[in-house]
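Worked example

This section walks through a single chain of length 240. The input is the sequence exactly as stored; nothing has been trimmed or padded.
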Amino acid sequence: MKFVKKNIIKSTNIFASELLSNKNLNDETVVYASFQTNGRGLAQNKWHSEENKNLLFSLIIFPEINVENHFCLNMIISLAICDYLFLSGVTAEIKWPNDIYVNNNKIAGILVENSLYGDIIKSSVIGVGLNLNQVDFPKEISNPVSLKNLTDTDYNIDDEIRAISEIISNKITKYKRLDFSEIKTKYLENLYRLNVESSFKINGQIFTAKIIDVRKTGHIVISDNHNKEHEFYFKEIELV
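Given that input, the structure is written out below as tokens.
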């Protein structure tokens, strides 16, 4: 695994994608930065981070899996980040579709961008932002938390980048051999607010329902107060 460190960068995912397109890469590569001027999340959401405080990186991998299993990749990455946090004594949960929570606070976000060759995912750029040493956050961010907030420990960014990247890479190698049902079982065990009555928002309207499942496609399945099931894709529904 190769590591490319940048001080200030627009976005590690953008840089990694350009690196992937401009060179014949065959090795897994990690691009990480002290600061991003345009950090991105799902659907153009922004990722805010204090300079030289957090883990801001993109991992280039070559999964060679069928495109119909694309959300399995998200599941595996999410589980790997939970494993990484557990090594520091922190139990985390996966907030569908791409956030990692500790209790009710967000500690990490994921953005996966895949490149296809026919029906096969030939390469993926896995972007991760994880709050590591930052302890103060902008007021407009409603529920952030960092690993330092939770453990009162200062972490070395270079060491932690290598540790979490290796965990993600090893987890993908191990889990992509499993079928979807086995991966989903692990994912649901760690899913935030599974089978818990929660408030959701659709088109500005708030209602109560429970998360009961996640499909192979990435759709979330909820059950309303009349026990009727509904499926939603990314950004079609919001857990509030």
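What to look for: The CA atoms of residues 135 and 149 lie 6 Å apart.
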